[in-house]
């Protein structure tokens, strides 16, 4: 399984720095709507939702009933959850921590 490596390419690093510079959900909408089509962004959001559902212990069938994705997509995401670099877990855990701390919905957590 191939994963991105830190400093793999300057353009990727620059993109990530740009994303980290965003301060609010509204800024994210503005940036990502320029960067992706609605379909691309929806697909990314669905993958993220699937990862959260799988981490919460949902079965493939339960996930498919909640998110319109194929079984192969669910399998691919589950494989990343089990053998990947831990990115899904990192972000989803931080979001859960923010939820338990009563974070505001609009601001992106402080850097």
Structural notes for this entry:
This is TrpR-related protein YerC/YecD. One of its GO terms (molecular function) is sequence-specific DNA binding. The chain has helices spanning 10-20, 25-35, 38-55, 60-66, 71-83, 87-100. It has 111 residues and is mainly α. It has a domain at 37-100: TrpR-like (Trp Operon Repressor, Chain A, Orthogonal Bundle). The protein is globular and about 40 Å long. 6% of the residues are buried. The model has no long low-confidence stretch (mean pLDDT 90).
CATH architect. name of the domain at 37-100: Orthogonal Bundle
Mean of all residue-level pLDDT scores:
90
The number of helical elements comes to: 6
- Share of helix among residues? 55-70%
Strand count, sense and barrel status of the largest sheet are: none
Query: From the helix content, strand content and strand pairing, which structural class follows?
Result: mainly alpha
Q: Could you name the CATH topology of the domain at 37-100?
A: Trp Operon Repressor, Chain A
Write a concise keyword list for the protein shown above.
111 residues, mainly alpha, Trp Operon Repressor, Chain A, globular, Trp_repressor/repl_initiator, Trp_repress, TrpR-related protein YerC/YecD, DNA-binding transcription factor activity
């Amino acid at each position: 399984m191939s994963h991105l490596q830190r400093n793999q390419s300057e353009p990727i690093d620059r993109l990530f720095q740009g994303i980290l510079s965003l301060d609010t959900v509204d800024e994210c909408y503005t940036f990502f709507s320029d960067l992706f089509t609605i379909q691309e962004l929806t697909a990314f959001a669905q993958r993220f939702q699937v990862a959260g559902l799988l981490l919460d212990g949902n079965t493939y069938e339960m996930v498919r009933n909640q998110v319109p994705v194929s079984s192969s997509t669910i399998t691919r995401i589950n494989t990343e959850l089990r053998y990947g670099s831990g990115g899904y877990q990192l972000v989803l855990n931080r979001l859960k921590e923010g939820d338990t701390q009563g974070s505001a919905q609009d601001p992106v957590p402080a850097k």
